[in-house]
Amino acid sequence: MAHRLRLWLLLYALACFAQAQEIRLDLGFNGQVVANRWNPIVLELRGHPAITLRLQIDQGNLKDGEIPITYLAKLPPSQGFSHFEDQLYLPEWRNISWVIESSERILASGSLGRRQADPKRLTLVLSNNLASWIDLLPNQRVTEALSHQLPENLAAYDGVETLIMDGTVTAPSPEAIVSAVTSGTRVIFFEPLPSSYASLKRLVEQNSRLGVGFILSVDRTTFNLNRLEENSMDMANLVTKLEDDTLKDYPTLANISPVLILASLFCLAILLMFRFLPNTAVSTSIVLSLIACILAWTWLKPFPSVIEQTRTLIVSGGDLAFQQSLLAIVNLPAESRRIPFASRLNKSLSHSQGPDFTELSLNRWSNLVLYKKPQLTQASFSLLPSEKGLELRNSTSFNLSRVYVIGKGWQDELAADSQILVKDGPLSPLPTRLERLSASLPTGTALAETANLILVALPEVKP
Amino acid sequence: MNFLKDLNQRLAKNDFMQISLVFFGLLIATLAFTWPANKEIANNSYFSVAQVRLMSLLLLALSFGSVELKNPRRQKLIVLLAILTLSLTSIVFEVATYAVSFPNIPLYWSILLGLIDPIAYFGFGLVLARVLGFLRLSSLLPLAIPALPVGLIFIDIYLGIPLFNPLTAVGHLSLPHLFLMTVFATLSLVYLLNFRKTTPL
C-alpha cells in the first residue's frame, strides 16, 4: 500500500514538473535574433494563472550608462493551451533578460548576452538538409526554420533577408509566405517541389513581386545569389529617408533684439516711475509690471508647445503593399506620454513597450520619431502591365496630382479610382521628400505624394 | 497714507535708484547672454534669469537688513517693502523667460520665492548685524554679507537637502526650503510689525 502511494506521489510530482516545464519562449527565428530589427516573439504554455512576460533590454553604452527598454505583455489565466505572438524591435543591446512570472512565482527566465546582438539579416531555410545549403549561401547568416512556426505577420520578417524552401519539409502557410514577401524578404522555391506546395507555387504564377519582396522559382544549377541582390531592397534603409528636418523643426521663438529693446524700455519706465511719481510709484509700477507680464506671455509663448506630425509610406508591388507609418513629436515642455501603438524610436531612450502601447518620458525641448510596426495592406497605387504598355492605377479615394516615374518623368494627374498609361514626361526635379526616396529605388518605380502620405509602386522584378 | 508716501519716497532716493538700475541691468544682461540665437538650442534663459533675480534680491535684502539695524523698525519695514516692490516689478523677466523655457516647475514657485526669501534674508541681515555688533566685529559686515549665503549654500551641500540655497531651490520644488524660509520670514515680519505698539502707521 505504502509503495503504491509513493508511486502515485512520484507520478503526481512528475506531472507537476512536466507542467512547469511546458513553457516555450522563442525570440527571433530558431534562437537567432537580429539587432536593430523587429523580431518575432512567441510564448506558448499550458494551464497557467494570470502571467506577465517581462523583457528588459539594456541598450546603453559605457558613455551613457544603462538605457533600459521594458517590454510587458500580460496573459489571462487559462486551463488549456495559450499561444501569445508579437513582434518586438530590438536595438543593439548590452543585455536582454526575460522573465515569465505570475503573482506568486517566477515560472521561467533567461537572458541574451551582448555577443548575440548581430545586425546581419537572416537567411531562413526550410529544409531537412540544412548543411547542403550552407555551401550554396556563402557569407549568409543561415538558420533553419520550421514551417509550422513561421509567423503570419509582416513585421516578424523585418530581419529576414531570404527564405528558401526546397520542398523537403511540410509546406508553410501561404499567409506566412505572403507576409514574408511583402516585408521585403526574397522567397526562393527550389524546384522540383512536391504537390503540397501547389498553393504556394500559384503565388509565383500571379506575380513575382509582392509588396517589397519577390518570389522566385529556380533550380540549384541556375541559382545566382548575386543576381538576387540587384532586385533586393532593404526597407529599413528606405524608411529612414522618411525622416527629414521638417519633422524635427522646433517652433520659432522671438528674436532677442526686440526682447532686449522692450525689456530695456520697461526697466526705464519703472525707474522713471520710482523717480518722478512720488505718490503713486509703487502702485503704478506694479500695475505696469502686471500688464507687461500678460503682454510678454502672449507674445513670447510658442503655440502649440507640442507639435505632432504623422507620415505614412506605402510601398506596393503586385496587389499587396508594405505600410510604414511614423509619428514625429517635437515637444518643448517635459512630459510623459502613452502612445497607443508599439513602436521603435529613432534614438536611444528609456521607455516601456507592450503589444499595443509605448510609454515614455520626453525631456523638455526634445524631438522624437516613433516608427509604427510595419503592416501589410492592399496596394492602392500600383504599376500594372497591360497590352498597351505599363499602367498606373490609383485605388485611393483622392486624386494624385504629383505622380513621377523614375526614368520616365512626371505623369498626368491620376484621379481617384482610375488608371493612366505611363508615358515619357518632363524630367524636372522632384520635391525634396521624393528626391530622398528615389535614390534608393529602382528605375521604373512610380512615386506620388499627398500631404502626409507617400505612395511608391515598385516595378516588376528584372528577369 | 504717510507710510505709502514714505515708501514711494524711499524708492526715489538715489541709493535705491542706483541699486534698481544695477539690478535691472543685471537682468537684461543675463537675458542677452542666455537667450539662444538658434531655435534648435533649448531656451534655458529662465533658469539663469530666475537665479540671478533671486540671488540679487537676497543679497539686497541681506545688505539692507544688516545696514538698517540701528534705524527704527518703521524704516526697516519701508526698506523691506521697497525690496519687495523691486521683486514684484521684476517678475516680468521671469514670466517672459518661463513662457519660452518650459521649466519643470510651476510659475508661482519662483514668484513665491521672490517674495518670501527676501523677507527671510532681511531677517538674517538683522541677526547678522546684531551678532557682529555684539562680537565687536561690525567692520567685517561687508565681508560677512556675501559670506553668509555662501556658508548657507555649503550647509545645504553638506546636509544634502536644499534648505537655504536659493540657487537650487529656484529650479526644483523644495518644500523644506519653503517651510524654513516661511518660518524665518514670519519671524522677521513679527519683529518688524511690532513697531505698531509704539508708532502708528
Q: Characteristics of this structure?
A:
heterodimer, A: 463 residues, alpha+beta, seven-stranded mixed β-sheet, 37% strand, B: mainly alpha, 76% helix
Tally of DSSP β-strands of chain B: 0
Overall mean pLDDT score of chain A? Answer: 89
Radius of gyration of chain A: 29 Å
General form of chain A: flat
User: Can you give the helix content of chain B as a percent range?
Assistant: over 70%
Structural class of chain A: alpha+beta
Give the largest interface pair and sizes.
A-B, 40 and 40 residues
**Series of H and E elements of chain B:** HHHHHHHHH
> What's the alpha carbon Rg of chain B, rounded to whole Å?
17 Å
- Main sheet makeup of chain A: 9 strands, mixed
* Beta-strand content estimate of chain B: under 5%
End-to-end Cα distance of chain A: 77 Å
Number of helices of chain A: 9
Number of helices of chain B: 9
* Assembly classification: heterodimer
Descriptive overview:
The complex is a heterodimer of chains A (463) and B (201). With 463 residues, chain A is of the alpha+beta class. Helix content of chain A is 23%, strand content 37%. Chain A contains 9 helices and 28 strands. Chain A has helices spanning 2-21, 130-136, 174-183, 198-206, 225-231, 235-240, 256-276, 281-300, 432-438; strands at residues 23-27, 37-48, 51-58, 68-75, 78-90, 95-102, 106-112, 122-126, 141-144, 160-165, 186-190, 209-210, 213-218, 306-317, 320-331, 335-339, 343-345, 351-354, 357-362, 366-372, 375-378, 381-385, 390-394, 403-405, 409-410, 418-421, 446-449, 453-457. In chain A, strands 14, 15, 17, 20, 21, 24, 25, 27 and 28 form a 9-stranded mixed sheet that branches. A 7-stranded mixed sheet of chain A has the order 7-6-3-4-18-19-16, with no helix packed on it. A 6-stranded mixed sheet of chain A has the order 9-8-10-11-13-12, with helices on both faces. In chain A, strand 8, helix 2 and strand 9 form a beta-alpha-beta unit. The longest helix of chain A has 21 residues, at 256-276. Chain B has 201 residues and is mostly helical. Chain B contains 9 helices and no strands. Chain B has helices at 2-12, 14-34, 45-67, 73-89, 91-101, 107-134, 141-159, 166-169, 175-193. The model of chain B has no long low-confidence stretch (mean pLDDT 91).
